[in-house]
Specification:
Number of helices: 0
Strand content: over 45%
Structural class: mainly beta
Order of helices and strands: EEEEEEEEEEE
Largest sheet: 7 strands, mixed
Shape: globular
Number of strands: 11
Radius of gyration: 13 Å
Amino acid sequence: QVHLVESGGGLVQAGGSLRLSCQASGRTDRIHAMAWYRQAPGKDRELVASQTGGGTPAITDSFKGRFTMSRSSARNTWYLQMNNLRPEDTAVYYCRSIGASGSWGQGTQVTVSS
C-alpha cells in the first residue's frame, strides 16, 4: 500500500503563491506516476499536473505558466508550486499515486481571497 499525505494548503491573497507537498510512504517502489488534482465546490475533480517517474511533468494547459510540479526522489515527496493564484483556484487539492498500488491523499484546502 502507498500512503499519501498532502500539506501546504492555506489561505492566500490573489496574486500570492503556495507550494503544496505530497509525502508518500509505504510501497513507494510501486509508484509509477504521481498526479495532482483539485476539486472546487460544486465542480468535478480535475487534473492539474502529472509526472511519470523522473520525467518531465505535464501541466494541464489551463495551469501552464502559473503551476509547476517537481519531485524529490530522496524524500519521496512531490510538489506543486502555484504562483499568481486567483480566487477561482480555491479548491481542495489532492495527490494521487498511479501504479500497482494507486492511492489518493486526503487533500489540502487552498483558499484564495480576492
